[in-house]
Design goal:
The protein is 9% helix and 57% strand. It is built from two helices and ten strands. The chain has helices at 5-19, 22-26; strands at 62-73, 78-93, 96-109, 115-129, 139-155, 159-179, 182-191, 194-202, 205-209, 219-229.
Length: 230
C-alpha cells in the first residue's frame, strides 16, 4: 500500500519530537542545521610591552620610581658609597618613555679627598623591550640616556674642590612585576660629566678654571629600583 507523500510528511513531523531527544533539538538552528559552538579565542602573543593592556587593564601612561644602591667614581681615589634617586616619566608613544629626575651620591675618599659627593638633575629618555615574548609585561628591560646639570664637591684635609657642568649618562636596567602597577628591578648607570668650571680652595685661597680636564671624573650607580605605574 502506497502512502501519499503529504500523509507521510505529517507522520514524520509528529514522530520526530518523540524519537529525537529534546537536547538535540535545542542545538539545532531554525533551518534544521546543528549549531557549531564558536571556537575558543586563541591566546595572542604580546608583541609590545606596553601596547597590550591585558584583559580589564588600562595602559599605563606614567611611572614614578625611587632608587637606592651603590655609587663609585672611576677617576679619583674613593670607596663605593651610597646613591639615591627619584624620577618621574611619561609614555608618549609605544615603548618610549620621557621624563626627568634627581640623583645624589655620597662617597668616602682616600688620600687627597676624605669625602666626595655630587648631585644632578636630568632629563631622561628610555626605551623598553621584552627579553622574551612569553614573559609578557611581567619581565621587562630598558636602555636609557640622559642629560642634565651636575655639581660635585670633594673635600680633603687641607683642600676642597667643587665642579659644575653638563651631566651626560647612559644606562640599562630591568624590572619584574609584583603587581600590574608595581615593579622592582636593577639599574646600572654610567655618568661622565663635562665640567664647565672647577674651583680649588687651599688655605683660604680659591682658584677656578674652565678646563674640564683639570678635574675629570666619571661615576657609576648600581641601584635597586621600585616603580609605581599610573
Amino acid at each position: 500500500m502506497r502512502i501519499h507523500p503529504v500523509i507521510l510528511g505529517l507522520l514524520l513531523s509528529a514522530l520526530v519530537p518523540v524519537l529525537v531527544p529534546a537536547t538535540a533539538l535545542a542545538d539545532e538552528g531554525t533551518e534544521g542545521f546543528v549549531r557549531n559552538a564558536p571556537p575558543p579565542p586563541r591566546a595572542r602573543k604580546v608583541k609590545r610591552l606596553t601596547d597590550d593592556p591585558g584583559l580589564g587593564e588600562e595602559v599605563p601612561r606614567g611611572r614614578f620610581e625611587a632608587t637606592l644602591g651603590l655609587a663609585g667614581a672611576e677617576s679619583i681615589p674613593t670607596h663605593p658609597g651610597v646613591a639615591v634617586g627619584l624620577a618621574v616619566l611619561a609614555r608618549p608613544v609605544a615603548d618610549l618613555w620621557l621624563g626627568g629626575g634627581l640623583d645624589y651620591r655620597a662617597l668616602t675618599g682616600s688620600g687627597r679627598y676624605v669625602s666626595v659627593s655630587d648631585w644632578s638633575v636630568f632629563a631622561q629618555a628610555r626605551y623598553y623591550f621584552m627579553p622574551h615574548r612569553e614573559a609578557n609585561r611581567f619581565v621587562m628591560g630598558y636602555v636609557l640616556a640622559q642629560v642634565g646639570y651636575a655639581r660635585l664637591a670633594a673635600a680633603g684635609p687641607d683642600s676642597a674642590t667643587t665642579s659644575q657642568g653638563l651631566d651626560l649618562g647612559l644606562g640599562l636596567g630591568f624590572g619584574a612585576a609584583l603587581s600590574p602597577r608595581v615593579y622592582v628591578g636593577l639599574q646600572f648607570k654610567f655618568r661622565f660629566p663635562v665640567w664647565a668650571q672647577s674651583c680649588l680652595e687651599i688655605g683660604g685661597s680659591r682658584a677656578c678654571t674652565s678646563d674640564p680636564a683639570d678635574f675629570a671624573v666619571t661615576t657609576w650607580n648600581l641601584s635597586l629600583v621600585a616603580s609605581r605605574l599610573f
